[in-house]
Amino acid sequence: MTHIPFGTASAGAWSVEITPESAAWDYCGLRVLDLDGDTVEFGTGQDEMLVVPLSGACQVEVDGERLTLAGRPSVFAGVTDFAYLPVAATARITGRGRMALPSARAARRLPVRYGPASEVPVEIRGAGRASRQVNDFCAPEAFDCDRLVAVEVLTPGGNWSSYPPHKHDTAGEGEAVLEEIYYFEGGPGYQRVYGTHEVLAEVGGGDVVLVPRGYHGPSMAAPGYDLYYLNVLAGPGDKRSMAFRDDPRHAWIRSSWAGQPIDPRLPFGPA
């Protein structure tokens, strides 16, 4: 199932649990944890992971280290700090709020690390009604991982993102092979996937859309409702990349942004 409504992929302590096995692919995963002062202990196994507060704050204990994540009130309040968890580790998370744990099957064991919010690159993409904000906290150039790539996208109500539609399923110049997870907060909004299989789903807080292949986009925020999504990507390439290819029917859209103003509602949170 490509569209996974909130509550349909829960398991044990996890309100969302997507593994390569459950998604029927090879690399990408995502867990979401809702905490109310309690502690959850788990093993990372074959996966490298991040702990990303969506709302609230937490403490992370792993490999004899204790990291305190200040977090944020909500995904629309600004960027957050985060933690990196290596493969073959036992971790404990204690806190209050909702925590996302994007993951990827990894071949190398990298050290535990803290990612400060002050070092998260923030960019504004598009223009006009295609204006959106991208928090590149775990983009290839921003934070070192073995295979995992993760970014946050925030789309003001009435705007489109993941636009023009694009794909990353064929190795070649300018395109990487990547599995991708969209995890949503806010909304309602709508997500489109097409080309090899068809999805047009209404999405909101806690929903997931899997993109094993094909064109995806736009992600549409309904007027009056801001939309957030966490993108988790991983693939077989030796080098981490987010290279993609636009749908050639819609690639011209990028040139239309010249001269259009950026949506003044951006950025969300402190600049």
UniProtKB/TrEMBL annotation:
The UniProt record lists the keyword Isomerase: yes
GO molecular function: glucuronate isomerase activity
Pfam families: KduI (PF04962)
InterPro entries assigned to the protein according to its UniProt record, in alphabetical order: Deoxy-glucuronate_isom_IolB, KduI/IolB_isomerase, RmlC-like_jellyroll, RmlC_Cupin_sf
Alphabetically ordered keywords of this record: Isomerase
GO biological process: inositol catabolic process
PANTHER family according to UniProt: 5-DEOXY-GLUCURONATE ISOMERASE (PTHR39193:SF1)
Protein name: 5-deoxy-glucuronate isomerase
Lineage: Bacteria, Bacillati, Actinomycetota, Actinomycetes, Streptosporangiales
